[in-house]
Amino acid sequence: MQANEALKNFLDNGDAIFQNVSIDCVIFGFHQNQLKVLVLTFKNTDKRSLPGGFVFRDEGINDAAQRILQERTGLHDIYLEQFCTFGQADRAISKVHRDTMQAIGIELPDDHWVLGRFLSVGYYALVDFSKVVLTTGILDEDYHWYDIHRVPPLILDHNHITRKALETLRLMLDYKLIGFNLLPEMFTMSELQALYETILDKKLLRANFQRKMLSLEILERVDKKWTGGAHKAPYLYRFDPRRAAAFLERE
Amino acid sequence: MQANEALKNFLDNGDAIFQNVSIDCVIFGFHQNQLKVLVLTFKNTDKRSLPGGFVFRDEGINDAAQRILQERTGLHDIYLEQFCTFGQADRAISKVHRDTMQAIGIELPDDHWVLGRFLSVGYYALVDFSKVVLTTGILDEDYHWYDIHRVPPLILDHNHITRKALETLRLMLDYKLIGFNLLPEMFTMSELQALYETILDKKLLRANFQRKMLSLEILERVDKKWTGGAHKAPYLYRFDPRRAAAFLERE
């Protein structure tokens, strides 16, 4: 009930909001060789959506995206990029919002600001899966990580937004060397290769991949991984952002 | 005076507009080995800006961008891509608009919709310079093509928007093979190389460039260019969009 009060206050206070604009976030994580996307489920419904939110009147859109992601994941300094803005003429969330509000006992008048046409600015985020501590919002009951190949039907154009984010991630993987944001601090070469193979959705030749990665001179070899076994232990690597910046500068 | 009437009617009719959102277009053309950008000057002022406009309430943002570009350049089927949305908290065009309107004798009340905060969706367009027929809008007096290295100070964040568009063009040049949109239908290999060198702002080795371009198998060799001279005439090429699509599919 406390949450509902907070929501009502928020909805009544439309003047504090930069109206007609929302933020939607495609949060990617990598776990057990799967590329995952964070999806929320609204309370008392089977409606699912990307995490998102509104922009305050005195807040820039990039700041709003950072705030929303921090609130949801508990993480600061998230790798975050704007990738596309979605603004079809009929992009109103009225039907969805009326239903999700009704499901928690709130009735909205027809001319309420939240029921109008919304343009959504899409951001994708890359997080270290192991560090995320999820927090639910006032409307949503639960969060799940879904394999990118098994994302369920989402509200509005959120499935389309998710596909667009994946396209951008694939393109930027080499161009900006951003994949490392999805890994823990130290990783083996085969973990790195599995990440690339999963994102690109294709097999890569082991020797070629290793040669290419080492030739970039952006990895620091740390130590051998202790496996306890008799066979050869793999090296551990750490991504060096300074060297990566220098590499991208040279390109 | 007729134009002013049209403008007044437009400004009074805020309900027809999807408010808080505008479109800004970075229109690139290639001429005499220079990459050029189209810039407009507002009537009776020295204020310059990118061509842009508003979105109608029943119009998608991509459709609005197409419409605005058609109105300005006279071209249909323009190569057009959304690249970034600009939404700083203090991004209000009030000061600029008050001045440009005053310059043509229109006073706006403080709470007029056009004076509020605006989020701008940025698009870049690639046009065949030789085919453009420029049309001025109701606010702007004149258009000029500026070399990308000599763009004058523009209103608001329009210089920043221009730089972002150039960054995206450079990135997409290879990834989407879009450079051909800047050339006439037939061109020589050295014209194509000059285009790439200008966009990337660096010299390329002639033999390497030619080998790489031909290896993509996206060019159709048409005929020798008649130069009238005794020396060897260069081949003319035509870009084959079907083969390019097949190439990008394979990649």
TrEMBL record, chains A, B:
InterPro entries documented for this protein: NUDIX_hydrolase-like_dom_sf (IPR015797), NUDIX_hydrolase_dom (IPR000086), WH-like_DNA-bd_sf (IPR036388), WH_DNA-bd_sf (IPR036390), WHD_NrtR (IPR054105)
Sorted UniProt keywords: Hydrolase
Keyword Hydrolase listed: yes
Domain of life: Bacteria
The UniProt record lists the keyword Lipoprotein: no
Stored Pfam families: NUDIX (PF00293), WHD_NrtR (PF21906)
GO molecular function annotations of the record: hydrolase activity
Ranges for domain Nudix hydrolase: 21-154
Gene3D superfamilies: Nucleoside Triphosphate Pyrophosphohydrolase, Winged helix-like DNA-binding domain superfamily/Winged helix DNA-binding domain
UniProt-listed SUPFAM superfamilies: Nudix, Winged helix' DNA-binding domain
Every NrtR DNA-binding winged helix domain range: 179-239
Full protein name: NUDIX hydrolase
